[in-house]
Each structure stands twice: as structure tokens, then as C-alpha cells.
Amino acid sequence: MTMIRVLNIRAGLLLLLITLMMLSSLSSSQEATTPSGFRFVFMTVDAEKACARKYDYIVVGGGTAGCPLAATLSTKYSVLLLERGGSPYGVPDIENADAFGKSLNETDKYTSVAQTFISEDGVSNARARILGGGTALNAGFYSRASSEYVSNMEREEGLVEESYEWVEKQNAFRPDQLSRWSSVFRNGLPEAGVLPDNGYTLDHVEGTKISASTFDNNGKRHTAADLLETANPDNIVVLLNATVSRILFNSQSEGQGIQDNPSAGVILQSPIPLEFSSIQVVGILKGSENYIESNSMVNITVPSHPMNVYTGDIFEKLAFPLSRGQLRLHSMDPRDNPSVRYNYYSHPLDLQRCVHAVSLIAKLLKTRSFERFAYAAANDSSREFHFIGQSLPDNPFDDAALLQCDAEHNLALPWRM
């Protein structure tokens, strides 16, 4: 997200040259860009209307940061929020928990709400193209940052607390109950040594915890766009389907030093029925270096022989990678994906920390809690897990095997962004 302050200038003469993608025919995933999908009176696709006003601030990108920033600024200043995608409201594939992942799988180059790309590292990713950004597409897990992180960022603790409460009032929901899969995961983590068991808390605490979701208990998703509810409607315009084609920077370092959180894990096929469950429980390892997370899915097999396949995904994610990469433009067309290389594991400490977390997943699968998800072996009385795709390496401390596990798991993640 880039914010440029502009005082007393007409929007049509800004340093930003705005290319409007006024699509004559929208895909089903963007039907909400019609007025019927506009929740707020200040949302529009009319560029002439947006350019007829003066603005103190322009916010480029209506995502996780752009929406609350624009809403906050509008309490005192005039604001134009530019979003290249459409509205998330009235779109079942976005709003309904049961449809999770569909928008990430049904993509195209220029109009879908998710724009996929594969980094030069070979890892599949997705860029959001919808108001609300990644919060309109991801798994919806909500938890606060650690107090150490807030301190290191030199943020005012009182203001941070106030901001948490503002977001949580609208977008964070305590689950009425855990799903079958999440209950087993929650019980297994302490068995594997992820202690203490903290129960439900929004705070960032080491050990096992249940946290909130941006899906409410009726299965409806709430996105960062909902935070525009608090905007001053007289001071803000949200222009949709507006792609910024040029931004003037003051330095030449853009695109350098980028990072992404490497992830490794496994997908298990369940012998017992499961329902869809977004992430409800997390294990935060010592030093807050890695998180262990999980969710369950119901997958439909090929249409010729339809049947439900129930799966559970367990994965670790490195919180603060030290490896750095770079981003370069492929073309002058702002709709095209850039060329991205994250250089995963180029720093040796990143690999060491992920090896430790994968060994903990291996330990988790050996707990009594997870015995019910093992199948009877064909030739003896033992039981074994059925993995979808990559299984855990026999030796979780084998660096090469971990890198393969990481690569295949990242390619399988439907919400990586």
C-alpha cells in the first residue's frame, strides 16, 4: 500500500496516472461491482465523479491496511481510496465460509478476485484483486501481535490497544465451538510439548491457544472493507476497478529486501467425516519464531465418481524470516504480475528454525489425539497416515527433505498470499 499526500489539487491532475479497468463483462466472481453490491454510498466505479473533487490524501490499494487507513484519515481529511478490484459484498464465493478456496482456484489473468503467480523460487502465490484485499480471500485467523513486536516497531501502546479494539469490535469473532479437527489439533499440541495450554485469548502468547476468526459463527466472512463503516461519508470516495499505472518515488530502492514466510507441512486424508474449518487454534513456539497451524477441508473427487474426501492440513510457518529477496517489473502494464524471488532459506537460521518446527509436527502426529486419523495398514496390525502429496521426511532433521516438503506444501496451499 502506498500513500501519497496531495494538497488542494484536482484528482485528475495528480502524480498518479489512473487507468480505469471498466470491464464490459465481469466474471461471476466480480458481479458485486454493480451498484447492488455497494454497501457504502461513497463506493463508485464512476471515474468522472471521483475526479470532480479535491483530496488531501490518496490511498492506493483498498486492502488490509488501505481500508482502515482511509477510514481513519476521513475523520479529519478528504480521501480518495483507489482499488483495482470490485466489491466483496453480495458475492457468495467471498462471503460464505463453505466456499472458502473457490475464488483462489478459479482465477484468470485480468478479472478474477485473486491473481495467481509463481515466484522465481517456484512457489505459488496469490494477489488479491478486490476491496478488502487478502482479508477477502484468506483463512480468516485473527490474533494480536506480540508486545515485543509493538515495542520494536516503536508504536504507542495505548493507540495500538485502541486500534485492536476498533478492529475486533467489527471483524473478530470468538468461535462458539471448535470443529472436530480443530479439537483434536488443540488437544494434540500440548501432548507434543507446545505448552502452556492458554485456552481462548486474542493476545500473542507462547504455547497453544484458541483465537478469533474473521468468519462469524454463521459462517459469514468479514473483511477489512467493513472498517469503512466508520469513515466520514462526506470526506471519502472509494473508486473501484481503478488500476494505478504510475507512481513517482523519491528513491531507487523499491523492490529490494522483500520477504515471505516459508511454510512446510502435510495434508492428511481423514478416515472419518470432517467439516470445513478455518484456522481456530495455533501453537506458538518458544521465542515466537514459528507458528503451527491447521485447518480441515471437504474435497469433492472427479465428477464421474463423486465422493467426499476429508482432509486436514498441518503446517508450520516461520514468523520473521531473515532471508531477503527482490521484485522486478516484467512490463509497463500494471495488470501484469511482477517477477518475484524471495530466496527462501538463503539465511541458514531460517532453515534451522523450520527444521525444528517440522520435527514438532512429526511429534504431534505420534500423539494419542491423532491416532483416530490413522488407517489400518494393509499387511499387519499397525496403523499409518494417508498423506495427500508430500509426506513428512523420515528424518525431520534432513535439510534437503525439509526443503522438498516446504516446496510441495507451499504449492498446495490455496490461500498463500
Order of strands, main sheet, comes to 9-10-16-17-18-15-23
List the quaternary state of the chains. Answer: single chain
The unreliable regions are 1-34, 411-417
Secondary structure: helix percent = 10-25%
Structural class: alpha+beta
Q: Overall 3D geometry?
A: globular
Q: Radius of gyration from the CA trace?
A: 22 Å
Q: Main beta sheet, described?
A: 7 strands, mixed
Instruction: Classify the beta-strand content into a percent band.
Output: 25-35%
Kindly describe this structure.
This protein is α+β, with helices and mostly antiparallel strands and 417 residues long. The protein contains nine helices and 23 strands. The strands form seven sheets. A seven-stranded mixed β-sheet has the order 9-10-16-17-18-15-23. The protein has a five-stranded mixed β-sheet with strand order 1-4-5-12-3. Strand 16 (281-284) and strand 17 form a beta hairpin. The longest helix is centred in the last third of the chain and has 17 residues, at 348-364. Residues 1-34 and 411-417 have low confidence and may be disordered.
